Structure formats: C-alpha cells, structure tokens
Amino acid sequence: MQKKPLNKLKIGLVLNLVPGYSETFFRNKIKGLQSQGFEVLLFVKRVDVTIDFPCKVIVAPEFGLSLLKAVSNGVATIFKILFLTPKRSLRLYRFDKIDNIPLKRRLKNLILNQFFLSYNLDWLHFGFGILAYRHENVAKAIGAKMAVSFRGYDLYLSPLKHIGCYDLLFKKDVKYHVLSKGMKQTLIDYCVPANSIHVITPAINTGFFKLQNSSVYKEDTVINILTIARLHWKKGLEYTLEALKILKQKGISFKYTIIGDGDQYERLIFATHQLGLSEHVNFIGKLSPTEVRQQLELSAIYLQYSIQEGFCNAVLEAQSMGLLCIVSNAEGLDENILDNITGWVVPKRKSELLAEKIIEVIQLKPIEKQRIILKASERVNQDFNLKIQNKAFNDFYRNLS
After folding, report:
1. Which of 194, 303, 380, 388 has the most crowded CB, counting CB atoms within 10 A?
2. Keywords on this record (predicted)?
3. Which among 302, 291, 298, 294 has a CA at the least distance from the CA of 380?
C-alpha cells in the first residue's frame, strides 16, 4: 500500500453508536486528530438520533429490521462483493479461512464487513475491544493497520460473558490502546507483547472544568456529596448507599446527588427507600456538561466507589473542580487518584470502610482539605489535559505507521 503524506493519514474509528453531546471523550479525540491533520471516518452499527458530529459517519446496513429492508440491503451488499470490492472480499475470505473460521461465518463476515471494505484507510481503530470480535481480519483485508482500545468493561467483563472472544485477536498484529498501567499488565498476562500496548489515559477540558476560588472546601452544616455514573451494577452504588446509611446513623447531615441514568434505576430507588435515605439522596438523571459543572460547583465530596472501572473521566473532572475525591481500588481508579495525596482509595465492596473514610475526610482540618484539593487540581491540569492526550494519539498513529 502506498504511504500517504505525513499529514494525510486516514483513520477509521469503529463504535456502536455516534457519541452523544455529553460523551466528550470520542468527540474530543476526533477534533484533536483533525486539528493535527488526520482525516477521521466514524463507522457505527446504528444511529439512534440525528446529531451533529465533527466527521463523516458511515452506518452499517441493517439486516434485521424488516424482510424488505434485509432483502434490499442483501442485494446491495452482494453487488458490492462481486463488482466493487471483489479483491478485498476475497482477501477477507482467505484470511478467515486460514484462521479456520467456519464457512458459514466466513460468508457472514463478507456481508457484515462490506461497509468497511469500500474505504481506503491507514488505520482501522476499534473503539472498544469487543467491537473487534469477529472482525479480526478486516483491517488486513483493506491494507490498513489495526488498533484496538480497551476501556475497562470490555477487558474485564466481556471475556467472562463471551469465553474466548479475544483468542484470535491476541494472535494478530494489533496496536492496543489502554487507559491505565493496570490494564496494560492485564493484556501482558494474556501474552500480548508489551511493545504493542500503549497507555494513553483519559483527559478532560481543564479550561471548562476549572478550580474556582469558591470551589475550595468550605465548612458547611450539610455536606453535599456527588457521584456521576451510569446506573449500572459495576458502579457499586448500593455499597455507596450502605455507607451513607452509616453516616446517617452517626448523625452526619448530608445530601447525596447521583447524576446519570441506566437500567438499575428502580433497584437503586428501592434500595434508597429501604435504607431510609430517601430524604438524603437525589437521582437527577443525565445532564449536559454545563449542568454537570454546576453540580460539581455545589458539591464538596465526590464518590466513585465502583466495582469495576477503567479510569473514569468524572473523577478527573471532580478533582479539577476542587472536590475531595474518594474512590474504590477498582482497576484504573488507584492510578486516577493518588491515595492520601490527591484523594483517597478504599478497597471495593467494603461499605463500612467507605463510611469511615468519608467521616475521616469530613473531619480533616481545612488546611489539610485545601492541600489535597490544590494538589489534585494541579495534577489533573498538568497530566490529564487534552493537549497531552492529542499529542499521545498523534504519536500513536504517526510513529507506528
């Protein structure tokens, strides 16, 4: 494949859906790459809503909505295989055959991957590890390099749900992006070569989520506590609620706000009721970044007591805004927070320990609270800003091309 000029590398990013306005990571990444001369195409399985997006979006054809739609898309796909992408289709078929993929799956792969095969790319980058499952040979078939990002759930939980899902992937020539050193070690434990794994931590807009003078901790009668999380079991919210019940029993006045939505809403509402916390806990749903910032400005303590977590941008935002952060030791969180330096790390699934730590933090002297706040904000601004992230991805693509 003829190498393109330095500033003309074309990257295909693969996601399930077009990221929404509040899902800033991929939007920031795409804008950062474009500002450095990359051309970015976004490949998605479907589009739930029509939203503005900063790059071209290619949507996979649907084969399951209706019989008429399936037949129409099927005919169009067969035409592409025979007349538009015959050489690439044949290569994909042969690569799958070498990997001993069954005939039925090989034919299905030809159909499902046609929306990739029509494009000339330098990189095909799967935004989550599980998205590369059964697409391991597509990049090679189109003459592109292959990259895969792991973000937490896809590395730690997907292999439990889909046994052997990464067996073929880990044998391929792939460059991996992970969020933390812990995740890198997990891939090494899977026998992935260390030089193929690149740690690029999340980053935030530190100019938007910025420490204000008013954000420095003040002694309030009622302690405002905040969590930003999808209402999912892996976020450990029931353990958090159990810890807050202990605070209530000890006579500590607090208000706990949870930003986010998810399929565990009813369960958590009922748990809040059973624990006698209904007057103290407020579920306010999903908010825009501006509304999130407003809630951060109103809060003093941030909790992220997850059972599983890749890294967590919300913890970076909270540190940058001057909140005292208490997190679990789930995966990347103990790299996000430096224990007793920029916040506190508590072993997961230990509600009593979490309650003790919250009380300890509340009772710290104001000068100690300010020391932690300023150190955390300084570290986020220096190490987790978008400029650093953009440079890291620029190096990832250019130096490995």
Report:
1. 303
2. Transferase
3. 302
Class of domain 6-60+120-203+386-399: alpha beta
Do the domains at 6-60+120-203+386-399 and 213-383 have one common CATH topology? yes
Q: How far is CA 151 from CA 104, 178, 296, in A?
A: 31, 6, 24
Please give the CATH number for the structural domain made up of 213-383: 3.40.50.2000
The rounded distance, in Å, linking the Cα atoms of 147 and 189 is 19
Task: Tell me the pTM.
Answer: 0.90
What residue segments make up the domains of the chain, in order of their start? 6-60+120-203+386-399, 213-383
List per-residue pLDDT tens for the chain, 401 residues long: 444 445 579 999 999 988 876 567 888 889 889 999 999 999 998 776 556 778 899 988 876 666 666 566 666 777 677 777 899 999 999 999 999 999 999 998 988 888 899 899 999 999 999 999 999 999 999 999 999 999 999 999 999 999 999 999 999 999 999 999 999 999 999 999 999 999 999 999 999 999 876 555 556 689 999 999 999 999 999 999 999 999 999 999 999 999 999 999 999 999 999 999 999 999 999 998 899 999 999 999 999 999 999 899 999 999 999 999 999 999 899 999 999 999 999 999 999 999 999 999 999 999 999 999 999 999 999 999 999 999 999 999 988 65
